[in-house]
Amino acid sequence: MTVAEPITAAVLQKLVAEFLAAHDPRAAADGEARLDFLRARFDAGLAWIHYPPGLGGLGAPRALQPVVDAEFAAAGAPDNRPGWNAIGLGMAAPTILRHGTDEQKHRFLRPLWTGEEIWCQLFSEPGAGSDLAGLGTRAVRDGDDWIINGQKVWTSLAHIARWAILVTRHDPNLPKHEGMTYFILDMHAPGVEVRPLRQITGESEFNEVFLTDVRLPDSLRLGAVGEGWTVARSTLMNERVSIGGGAIPREGGAIGVLANLWRDRPDVRTPGRHDDVMRAWVDAEAARLTATRFRQQLAAGEVGPDGSAVKLTFATLMQRIAGLELEMRGEESLRHEDWDLGRGRDVPFLNRIAGYRYLRSKGNSIEGGTSEILRNIISERVLGLPSEPRSDKDIPWKDLPR
Amino acid sequence: MTAAADLLYDETDEELRGNLRGMLSERSPWSKVLARVESPETCDSKLWAVLAGEMGLAGLAVPEELGGAGATWRQVAVVLEELGRAVAPVPYLGSAVIATRALLHCGERDLLAELASGRQCAALAVPFSAMAGTVTPSVSADGDALTGTVTSVADALIADVLLVPTADALYAVSAADATRTSVVSLDMTRQLCDVAFDGARACRIASGPAAVSAVTAALTTGAALLASEQVGVAQWCLDTTVEYLKTRYQFGRQVGSFQALKHRLADLWTRITQARAVARYAAARAADAAARAADAADAAVPGASVDAERSVDAQQEEAIAAALAQAYCSDAAVLAAEECVQLHGGIGFTWEHPAHLYLKRAKSSAIALGTPDRQRAALARMVDVPAA
Fold it and tell me: Which of A273, A278, A313 sits opposite B270 (nearest CB)?
């Protein structure tokens, strides 16, 4: 097709049909055939269509992606199991696309999209949580290489990841935001040690990652030396967009579990609880409509701040609903299933017992930016209120109190 | 089930908002509203003439063939947001929403055309606190003569016509034939009155179940649309408080830089963001129910029974959306007004600052058309969460 032709849904449907005629989706169910099919889809520009040609896309409007995905799904084609590589697809890929060299883009994006290479994110540290820019993992230049030392934490998928996005401090003598440099890290490199981090549910969805004299070539640097904070911020923008989820029907979430418990079990009903349940119902429906409105804004090309309201509300609502359910179940809730250390079960969240959901949802207001940091962001970027006076901006990182 | 609702504003909505905001800031700044609450005429009849007559907004949701503008309740909701933002002392909710919805339900063309054109103004004679489905008529009819008293009626002081429910009918009465006694109201920007009838001559506009359903439809749409007025009130409170905290200095810094206050305002913004989604949903469902009712009324069309069924579904969804909207937006507006007073400090406690106008509007609106707890109880019945 010519460059001038606008890419419409009909054009995409035609391209997918042509692709499927040349690549039989039924012969690509699993194994190498499945990967070959996905690689071919990437090479045809039908992977993430808003990416540039040659990198899995067509430079088409992102809003048309569902058209392409629906055509492949209808043909019974294998997908790239996006849930298995959420950090790669949601955060590493857009960062590499924006800040990577041509060589990096061509090396990493294809196996990332096909799911051959899983990614994780090495950002937070024991001493740098909400204040990410305070991080201390050191990167010291050694000829054409860098030597990395430090500890990272809260790393989902580190135990299966092939690559990581990593933020480090290359110069502790500069103010904190200026002395940072961003890298791609080979998780198989000597000196990378992954340990499970056990959480309040007893399970381990996250890891600690220890980096001891890890050597990585300068060709894995993402962005210029000293640009680490800028690159990290663009990664985190994508995190806030990716949390929020898809459209759900009324009572499709945790509130449905609670409402059905009320309906099915007259023994759990008390007059006081009735209004608690209805207050939760009202708030859950309000949150659902807010998420719906936010998606309508995105579809209409309006990038507004309402997603922050969605995340903030979702977190407290999940906690409140699970806490209410625990109390309604009374004695039953005093008994838990198990506290075994495991890597998390392949069971949908809403099918887990209330005690598990109560505990796991405590993470909702911490992961991906705490609710407190989110309130700072809303008050400063949406409402335009001034920041708190700060004492950490203009002094060398090494002189900060810690 | 009804189709997905569009919760956004379109270009027409934004144009309408812009025109209205400009007109209101010129003709009805808060200083004039504040002065008017202590004047003999608390309702601004000149402003109402501009809104209803010149701008043609009284008949916004009335079909063109009935003398209206043929828009939908979604646009009416935008008007209410702006009127709430200005705490404008006009009978828009009572006449252009509640009374208009009752007349649309009754198919009362002549009076509807009078209202739509702004030549006349009407009010439904029920206490402002009355909730859809719970109205107990306090007026009785003897032939075409009405006797009885209705207390705490909103938007009736300026009305030309009163719509009066009795046990088995709905009547239209010339306001001149009733005795209206103004009430010192919590919210003087929407002053209430007690209305007494002593053998007043009335015209019956609906009977039996149709009369009951007309009142229910009117109060349901009123509740759905009041939510948008509450969003307007809440947004003014937030905007005004944010601006104040940027200019007020204490301890050598802007008060708005203290995290304790920033977090409260972030939470308030979050609440209002959600209230807007809920209010837009209620307005969309009100529009949908009105459109379905019009389809069903057009019995000449083949497939009328399907239309009738859809109309019932749409009404049920409007009722759920309205109860949800009142349960959510009432509290959001009250919180916004309370935060506005508190975060302004001493000045927020004075008569000379407008914050109290918004607090009084917010609190009385929360009580109007059913308090949040009553709305939650009604919602519980509709979504099958039975009482303990």
Answer: A313
Contact between A261 and A329 (Cβ < 8 Å): yes
pTM of the model: 0.92
Residues B62, B44 within the same domain: yes
Q: Are residues B18 and B89 in the same domain?
A: yes
The answer to whether A387 contacts B257, with C-beta atoms less than 8 Å apart, is yes
Check residue A244 and give its pLDDT. 44
Q: Provide the CATH number for the domain formed by A244-367 in this structure.
A: 1.20.140
Alpha helices in A243-305 (DSSP H): 254-264, 271-299
**How far does B124 lie from chain A, in Å, by closest CA?**
29
- Stretch A224-235: mean pLDDT, rounded? 94
pLDDT in tens, A383-396: 999 999 988 988 99
Q: What gap in Å lies between CA B35 and CA B32, rounded to an integer?
A: 5
B72 within some domain: yes
What residue ranges do the domains of chain A occupy? 1-79, 119-238, 244-367
Q: How many CB atoms lie under 10 A from the CB of residue A288?
A: 26
Is residue B130 situated within a structural domain? no
CB pair distance less than 8 Å for B274 and A389 = no
Taking an 8 Å cut-off on Cβ atoms, the answer to whether A278 and B388 are in contact is no
Residues B34 and B113 in one domain: yes
* Disruptive mutation site among B10, B247, B248, B274 for chain A (greatest number of A CBs within 10 Å): B274
On whether the CB atoms of residues A367 and A305 are closer than 8 A, the answer is no
Are B205 and B230 in the same domain?
Answer: no
- With CA atoms as reference, the chain B residue closest to A265 would be B388
pLDDT above 80: residue B372: yes
Residues of B in contact with A300 (CB under 8 A): 8
Residue B147 CB-density burial (10 A; 0-12 exposed, 13-18 middle, 19+ buried)? middle
Number of domains, chain B: 3
- Is residue B5 in a domain? no
Which residue in A116, A193, A208, A239 is the catalytic one? Answer: A239
Measured between CA atoms, how close is A318 to chain B, in angstroms? Answer: 16
| Chain A contact set for B259 (CB, 8 A) | 376, 388
End-to-end CA separation in angstroms for chain B: 29
Q: Give the structural domain span for B78.
A: 11-120
Shared-domain flag, residues B25 and B147: no
CATH topology of domain A119-238: Butyryl-CoA Dehydrogenase, subunit A; domain 2 (2.40.110)
Residue of B nearest to A280 (CA): B376
DSSP string for residues in A73-93: HHTT-----GGGGHHIIIIIH
- Residue B311 clears pLDDT 90, i.e. is over it: no
Q: Give the pLDDT of residue B224.
A: 98
At A323-365, the pLDDT tens digits run: 999 999 999 999 999 998 887 767 788 999 999 999 999 999 9
Mark whether A239 is an active-site residue: yes
Q: State residue A1's pLDDT score.
A: 46
- How many CB contacts within 8 angstroms connect chain A with chain B? 130
Closest CA–CA distance from residue B78 to any residue of chain A (Å): 16
Radius of gyration of chain B (CA): 21
Model confidence pLDDT, tens digit, residues B137-171 = 999 999 999 999 999 999 999 999 999 999 999 99
Residue B168 falls within a domain, yes or no? yes
Residue B204 has φ and ψ, to the nearest 5°, of -75, 125
Interface contact flag, A282 B262, Cβ < 8 Å: no
